[in-house]
Amino acid sequence: QHNQTPQPPEPPRQNQNPLTGAPYTPRFYYLLEKRQRLPAWMARQDFLKLMQANQVLVLVGEPGSGKTTQLPQILLDAGYHVQMGQVRAICCVQPTPLATLSASLRICEELEVQVGTFVGHVTRFEDRTSADTLLRFLTDEALFREAMEDPLLERYSVIILDEVHQRTCELDVLMGILKMVMQRRPELKLLLLSSSMEVKKVQAYFEGGAPLLQIPNRTFAVEVFHCQDAEKDYLKAAVRTVAQVHTTEPEGDILLFLPLEDEIDLACQLLRKESVHMMNFGDLQVRALYVGLPIMETQRVFDQTAQMRMTAGKPCRKVVVASAIAETSLAVDGITYVIDAGLVKQRAYNPRTRMEVNVVTPISKSSALQRTTLAGRQRPGKCFRLYPEQASSDWPEKVYPEIMRSNLTTVVLMLKRLGFDDVVHFDFVDPPSPEALMRALETLNFLGCIDDNGNITEVGNQACRLPVDPQIAKMLIEAPQHRCSNEALSIAAMLCSLPVWLRPNDAFRAANEAKARFAHMDGDHLTLLNVFHAYKQQIQDGHDPSRFCAENFISIRAMRHAEVARDHLKRIMESIGLQMISTDFQDKEYYPNIRRCLVSGFFMQIACLESEKRGAYSMLREGQEVMLHPSTSLGHRPEWLVFHELALSSKLFVKTGTQIKPEWLVDIAPRGYFDPQKISEKSSARGKMEKLMARRQGQDG
Ligand code: ADP
Ligand code: MG
């Protein structure tokens, strides 16, 4: 890359790449030809005309029509990055880090440039852009953070919000913010992309109604089959159906939708085993696709089966086992068969308990249709639904906006920071429940992020700088006072990472034994710290950490992710003036300090033992019964626990818990938070707290 301002890609006149000076490879022309056949390219003229004439445009096109990868390039070609005599950038916001990365890498490949030069991306813990980057792919969260530094987002000439039909909480709030910004910056253009026609609400939200451009569809008929009866074990049914398609149906790849990451991994394992017995029918290549896989692995879903070898005179077939991300965000080519379990993992929030949990629920009717059409993108296809037809009759028509079922704490803090003081009257596309908003404000007040008048505090400003939940942020901010900055940082990084423990089906015992080697008797947070320390020790001793991880059934991906997150968070902590202090490991306060620090962030997530025999706890203020999750490394059942999250399966479980002392609650939580009257009568904690307070008063007096 030269020092001069990079120019937008011109149609290649000679065979030299104007962005790098290097000659184009044959692959460039191969991809260019493919790109130019995409529906988005065909709609180029209409698109540019409407962009020119309007400040906001909504564009709808089927998955795979080239919205994400082609439209930003078309805007650059047309010179949209130059505005009012200045070179600005074009921003494209994706709802997940996986979609962000995938799009950025794909365009770099199409243009034959290095990531972070002309095109780049920003996710939570990674920034692969430079001052010269003209096309910036961002996660929704990353755009929030940029808005904090640059409220009018003046570095951009065009902002593209992708996948708006998904109505994620963050995209909804960004629409609200951008609506305000556009009033102050009439030259800023906003492009909203959708893979579904359900965008009326979004269109109507903008002044005068945003115009709609629909890219013509090019889909083929899809034949739909339902199961006769409800499948109890949809995973087994799914694997069976894949085998059936592979052995009886003509050529064409398979896309299988399952709701949970674990199930996807398990299905892949089963299918790989199964494929050995089906070699006579051709090779079956198995690929997984969900958020959290390493990017290189997810890119392998795009491998073209046509280029793979023949087996037994039969062409190779690919099966992609995917989460809902494959529904619209990542369109895989060559799919002829879709197998759909009809389920999705969704956020659910209960404002009363303040807890957000993930639940598996039936998909909406519009999602079911969307999944079906994916089988007909290149030729007529088939869709096998693993549920009876009548089962879907009471499913919701469409996706219920996520903002109505989310914990709003982070979003409200961001809005406060951006100067939207009256969040209750913020111009939402669909307003969340007043109760959820009040809960968020109350939580922020307890954490000290906003004061009693609702104004953001110094702690609140610091928390905004840290790209983690406000509770973890609070823990990091308080860490120097508890003399455990380095340890809190490691725990925070581990909590933000992927699941650490691998649970291979065929080595369950060995995996549990390995886990026990790191167990800290005081709790899971400290176990995580042990694992992190052991991992770093391996590296320091010059060993290959991947061997260590494999031997101990630890996910190396999770560890690498935690390392990156830790470095990133450490840099921010230092830049906002938080000191890196540790207690000496030999000091008997080493672990108590860390446990106190956990309480300083998570005092709203305390459980008190109700029945030792059943392992039943009650959530401290709410009184709700919760059980200790079997995955815990705690060998006993402590009377008081601070916990990181709730998981809902057959019961409500607390996950990642660490033993604490009730005195700490009184000392560390805001004054009055644990007044016995505030504690549910159902909880035995009320009596215990009363005694503790009485004892305290005796001491003071
Ligand atoms: P849309 O955003 O409209 O769903 P995309 O721009 O993502 O469409 O995709 C356009 C085409 O490029 C599709 O055929 C898709 O399969 C292909 N494609 C997208 N990303 C990749 C990738 N990382 N590798 C290979 N092909 C890709
Ligand atoms: Mg897209």
UniProtKB/TrEMBL annotation:
The keyword Nuclease does not apply. GO terms for biological process: mRNA processing; RNA splicing. Its EC number is 3.6.4.13. Keywords: ATP-binding, Helicase, Hydrolase, mRNA processing, mRNA splicing, Nucleotide-binding. Residues 48-215 form the Helicase ATP-binding domain. It is an enzyme of class 3 (hydrolase). It catalyses: ATP + H2O = ADP + phosphate + H(+). Residues 680-701 are annotated as: Disordered. Residues 241-419 form the Helicase C-terminal domain. One of its GO terms (molecular function) is ATP hydrolysis activity. This is RNA helicase. The lineage of its organism: Eukaryota, Sar, Alveolata, Dinophyceae, Suessiales. The chain holds residues 158 to 858 of 858 of the full protein.
